[in-house]
Design brief:
CATH architecture of the largest domain in chain B: 2-Layer Sandwich
Strand order of the largest sheet of chain A: 1-2-3
Radius of gyration of chain B: 26 Å
Shape of chain A: elongated
Number of helices of chain A: 10
Strand content of chain A: under 5%
Shape of chain B: elongated
Number of domains of chain B: 2
CATH topology of the largest domain in chain A: Fumarate Reductase Cytochrome B subunit
Number of strands of chain B: 10
Oligomer: heterodimer
Distance between the termini of chain B: 72 Å
CATH topology of the largest domain in chain B: Alpha-Beta Plaits
Order of helices and strands of chain B: EHEEHEEHEEHHEHEEH
Radius of gyration of chain A: 20 Å
Order of helices and strands of chain A: HEEHHHHHHHEHH
Number of strands of chain A: 3
CATH class of the largest domain in chain B: Alpha Beta
Strand order of the largest sheet of chain B: 8-1-10-9
Number of domains of chain A: 2
Chain lengths: 231, 265
């Protein structure tokens, strides 16, 4: 929506706070769709047990072709979002994933208890809490490793055999890491009673104000301040 | 079937290449345009349609030259790296000692080709299948000699029971060493023991072969560590989610819905 584009991240309105701009949500869902298409089609080559499933996309060789086409979208599509449009939130996210504050570390310590439904104390968090930063790091590193190893595998004849040999285990390693991470990520965003309110941030862009206060107090305070400055 | 063996006694090889023609004929492999790539060698390496060729290395001592000639094909390792690399269960080992690719199961991913220490399997990009020497398993299992052995005129290739032929090879090696002191037996222990073994007249390196061939370290890491650990990690993540849901349910966190309930302060 045109009106929405004019809004800035952190805008507070009617008990809601804008958490993710259209560009951030587009990147996220582009990554989601391409990741799962790559995971599914990749399973065909991963092990013989998945061969019959590949008939869903027209056969194993079609799956291998889809894997390559979607890989290009996965890399270039998501990568381009760091440069086109209002891309500063992408860069902010990237920067934040590599900087862990004391508050983040305490959140990570509390993460296990929270994950299994318990409660543990941790200081107010910024836009991304310690756990989200871990997930971001796994995604960033996993995507980088799977991209580079995938390129080597795709263009194997152009690389020395000794390098190609290493691409296979690294491609699998990145897949395992990202698959394990996405299972936890889906749980926290859709099923976990404490954090599932966050899904609206990736759908509409807005999260409930009291969720923002409870989970990302530092970020919320800043957002509220920005609003009063803007007014 | 008992373990078979083909002994290539390179001291008897004249480089006539009849074996390579016989292979094409029996396996109905089309001829390919060739050129002399080195000395009298007409194939640089294997192709999906060329499963064997003779390598020629010119060996000079003073003004004297003699060829190191070797009929190259799949060694049919007892511990094959290609089999370990295959994700499609397309490669298997027979009791007779042959490593064969099932074309119906092969998807042409090329993992076998990349991981074979000798670069033997080759993928046909059109057919999306990997091909290599079958050891003429179809002949062997019907009590016929492999086609290359059948054709060899000089007795450089010999087929038989592995135990008997290996003993014979050792005796023959002692004789060959008289003229070629560096001669050695290649294939008795390499890669777990190869069905196609050789009496070489010089070091393996002189023939472009590795002295201690081994499956790539990356392959071992991949199949023996990353895959099992990764599978457990993904299963563990799924199990953690199940316990997370149970933990939340038992603590009553899914209790009466309250809009915007944060779950924690």
């Amino acid at each position: 929506m045109a009106v929405e584009r004019l809004k800035v991240e952190g805008q507070v309105a009617e008990g809601k706070v804008l958490r993710f701009t259209g560009g951030e949500r587009f990147s996220h869902w582009l990554h989601v769709v391409s990741f799962f298409m790559l995971l599914f089609t990749g399973l065909g080559v991963f092990t013989a047990g998945f061969h019959p499933l590949m008939s869903l996309v027209g056969g194993l060789q079609i799956a291998r072709l889809i894997h390559r086409v979607v890989a290009v979208i996965f890399v270039l599509g998501a990568g381009a979002m760091f440069f086109i449009g209002d891309s500063r939130y992408h860069r902010d996210w990237l920067r934040s994933a590599f900087s862990f504050s004391e508050a983040d570390k305490k959140h990570i310590k509390a993460f296990t208890a929270e994950f299994f439904g318990g409660h543990a104390a941790y200081p107010p968090q910024d836009k991304y809490n310690g756990g989200e930063k871990i997930n971001s790091l796994l995604t960033i590193c996993g995507s980088a490793v799977i991209t580079v190893s995938g390129l080597v595998m795709w263009f194997a004849p152009n690389f020395p055999a000794g390098l190609v040999d290493w691409a296979y285990p690294l491609h699998d390693l990145a897949m395992f890491v990202m698959t394990a991470a996405v299972i936890g990520h889906i749980y926290l965003s859709l099923i976990h009673p404490g954090s599932r309110a966050s899904i609206s941030g990736m759908l509409t862009g807005y999260v409930p104000e009291d969720f923002a206060k409870a989970h990302h107090a530092v970020w919320y305070e800043q957002a509220a301040e920005n609003k009063s400055v803007a007014k | 079937m008992t373990r078979k063996m083909v002994l290539a006694d390179t001291s008897k090889c004249t480089g006539c290449k009849a074996c390579t023609v016989a292979c094409k004929e029996w396996n109905q492999l089309p001829a390919e345009k060739t050129q002399l790539v080195r000395s009298y060698q007409s194939m640089r390496t294997f192709t999906p349609d060329t499963w064997t060729f003779v390598s020629f290395d010119e060996n000079y001592s003073g003004s004297q030259m003699h060829w190191l000639m070797r009929k190259a094909q799949c060694f049919h390792c007892a511990d094959p790296a290609c089999l370990k690399a295959c994700t499609s269960k397309a490669i298997s080992k027979t009791g007779s000692g042959y490593v064969v690719i099932d074309a119906d199961l092969c998807i042409g991913c090329g993992y076998c080709a990349e991981n074979c220490p000798f670069g033997v399997p080759k993928v046909d990009d059109q057919k999306k299948k990997a091909f290599k020497c079958t050891g003429c398993i179809d002949r062997v299992e019907n009590n016929l000699k492999p086609m290359c052995v059948q054709t060899c005129q000089t007795g450089a290739l010999e087929f038989g029971e592995r135990d008997e032929l290996m003993a014979k090879a050792k005796k023959r090696l002692a004789e060959v060493k008289g003229k070629y002191p560096k001669a050695l037996l290649y294939g008795e222990k390499e890669m777990g023991g190869m069905t196609h073994s050789y009496i070489l007249l010089d070091s393996p390196e002189a023939y472009g072969l590795p002295s201690n061939p081994a499956a790539p370290l990356a392959l071992t890491l991949w199949k023996d560590i990353i895959r099992p650990v990764g599978t457990v990690a993904v299963g563990g993540a799924a199990a953690a989610v199940v316990f997370g849901i149970l933990g939340n349910a038992l603590r009553g966190n899914y209790g009466p819905p309250e809009s915007g309930k944060g779950g924690k302060e």
